[in-house]
Structure formats: C-alpha cells, structure tokens
Design goal:
Layout (H helix, E strand, L loop, with lengths): L8 H4 L12 H7 L10 E4 L5 H11 L4 E6 L2 H14 L6 E5 L5 H14 L5 E4 L17 H24 L6 E6 L22 H23 L4 E7 L13 H8 L11 H4 L1 H8 L10 E3 L2 E2 L21 H15 L5
Parallel strand pairs: 1-2, 1-4, 2-3, 4-5, 5-6, 6-7
Antiparallel strand pairs: 7-8
C-alpha cells in the first residue's frame, strides 16, 4: 500500500485479467479490519442478485452488519442469500425487499417497506442498473436507462435520507454509494431532451444515466455532509456480468480479444472491491464528494473516446448541472428531499 487514497496501486499496476492480483471486495473488508466489526450497523444494497451486486452483498455481510437487499426476482434473491449465509464469515442477517426499478411506485413502496423493517441505515449502496438496452420507456414514461439507473435511485435514496441522517454518528457517518461507470464520459445529461426522444443511442443513454449518478452523489455530499451523510460515486471497472446482456456476441468477442481491454477485466469479486472501499474504507470516514475507481480517487481522463481508462469527464463535477438535475429529479419522481 502506497497511500491512504491509493492503497492498492501496486496491485492494479499490471493487470492480467479476472482473478489476477487485484484485490477482491472481501480483501478490502479485511484490510480495513471490518470483519464482524460492524455488527451494530445496517446496510442496504440495490441490485444484489447478479454480478458485482452479489459480491458486494457477500463482502458487506462479512462485516457483521444487518444487510438488506432489493430484488425483482424473489426466488433468485433467496438463492443468493442462502449461498452467502452458507459461506460468509458474517454474523448478521440478510433480508430481501421486492422492487421493480422501472416503476417509481414500486421503488417508493420498497423504501416504505425498508423503513417499516428498520429504523436505522448506515450504508446505502445504489448498485442496480441496466446497460445498452433497446429504446423503451419505464412504467412512468421515462427513458428506461435513465429511469432505472438514475430516477429510481434518486427516489429511493431521497426517501431514505432522513434515516441516513438520523443513523449517522460521530465515529461512523452514514454513506450513500452510487455505482456509476467510466461510460459517463460518453455523454452529459441533456436537459433539453432528457428522454432522448428521436435521437436514442443505447450507449449514450447509458452514459447520461451514469453522469446522473455522479451528479447525484456530488449533490448529496454538498447538501447533507453537514448532517453526517457522505456520498461517493465510483467506476467498478470492467466485469463480465449480466450487464452485457444487450450487447451482441460480436461486440463481446471483440472486447474479449482486445489486447488493451482484456487484461483490465475483473472477476465480480474484484469488480466489487471499489464499492467496498467506498462503503467501509476507514479513509473515507467523514469524507465524500469524490469519483473513485480501482480503489483510488480518480483524476481527469486523458482520453474521452474510450471506456478503458478510469479518469473522469470534464463535466463530472458541475455544481450548476448537479443542482439542475436534482430539481428536475424531484419534479419527475414526486419525491421531496428532507
């Protein structure tokens, strides 16, 4: 480890593909001395039944915290929970809350259900997402990637903010973690055509939704850090998961044979490492408002025409746009922040 905000630089310096020397989520938990050390904490993870969501949940459970997960498919969620309970060092419970992220009514009901079950929330991980789907609309009429990746998480987080605030303590401030993507560099949010009507491109829509994740995290940090709630956004890196289900076989084969990209790909457990660093890393106590990747604070991107490097776009930190998106999201979701 070379520095508090870049603890694994030597491990990330020469990647060779999934399962290489780069840290896993559980390794990050162990390195931060969190194994069964957060037994009085409550955490909540969206999108916990596939990909890095499973490994995020597995590692968070190892902290001893009471873990809640959201899921559309309850049977799949039960199988994931049982697998984690059978293999985890953690002593806490895992509870499931049903949610359909493409319906704001379902999202609001899920938030209400959580609040009925728990009076505490210390860590919220907004992990659920879709990528590159054909043009379609949510049940509320919004472009689907914007709806699932941003608006659902905005509504969910906003409804839980009072509990995050109330649960914060001087020795452990509450955290809201947004899983974004290097693809935010493809596009900023277009306020003149938020649903990309007539100009839809799957990857651009995904990029806009990921920019929205970053902006929302930045705005939460700005508005609520003084009340003990801190927010971070992150790029988990490249992982072969169900997120690529809308990608063509030709595209996937091309990526797998790309000599620059292939070594950067990670296992799901490695892909969840940055999420855990943001969620339980001791270095982040009382801090937020950063975009992180490879378990370090990201720098400005050297190139904007690819999703390989981990830097951030010039628009990633834009206070005026962050506030504008915040206000628009209130209007579109009907959820008013505390």
């Amino acid at each position: 480890m070379t520095g508090a905000f870049d603890p694994y630089s030597s491990l990330y310096s020469n990647p060779s593909g999934p399962g290489d020397q780069r840290p896993t989520a559980l390794q990050v938990v162990k390195d931060n001395d969190r194994i069964n050390k957060l037994t009085d904490k409550v955490v909540l993870v969206t999108g916990a039944t596939s990909g890095i969501g499973v490994e995020t949940t597995r590692a968070l459970h190892a902290t001893g915290a009471h873990v809640y997960i959201t899921a559309r498919n309850m049977e799949k969620a039960k199988a994931v929970v049982q697998d984690i309970l059978n293999t985890s060092e953690g002593k806490g419970n895992i509870d499931i809350i049903k949610i359909n992220m493409d319906s704001l009514e379902s999202v609001k009901q899920a938030a209400k259900m959580f609040l009925q079950k728990s009076t505490k929330l210390n860590i919220l991980v907004n992990n659920a997402g879709i990528m590159g789907c054909p043009e379609s609309r949510s049940k509320d009429g919004h472009e689907l990637q914007l709806a699932v990746n941003h608006l659902a998480h905005f509504a969910f987080t906003t409804m839980l903010l009072p509990t995050l605030i109330a649960s914060s303590s001087p020795d452990f401030n509450s955290r809201a973690i947004f899983v974004a993507s290097s693809s935010h560099r493809f596009a900023r949010v277009d306020f003149d055509n938020i649903n990309m009507t007539g100009i839809y491109q799957p990857q651009l829509a995904y990029g806009k939704s990921k920019t929205a994740n970053i902006w929302t995290a930045n705005q939460i940090e700005r508005l609520y850090s003084s009340q003990g709630v801190h927010a971070l956004s992150l790029n988990p890196g490249g992982i072969w998961t169900e997120l690529q289900r809308y990608s063509s076989e030709a595209d996937i084969d091309g990526w797998k044979n790309d000599k620059e990209l292939a070594p950067l790909m990670q296992s799901p457990a490695q892909g969840a490492a940055t999420t855990l660093w943001a969620a339980v890393g001791k270095v982040w106590e009382g801090l937020g408002g950063s975009y992180v990747a490879d378990c370090k604070v990201s720098a400005p991107a050297e190139r904007m025409d690819d999703a390989v490097n981990n830097g951030y776009a010039p628009w990633a930190y834009d206070e005026e746009s962050e506030e504008k998106l915040w206000n628009l999201s209130i209007e579109l979701t009907g959820v008013t922040p505390p």
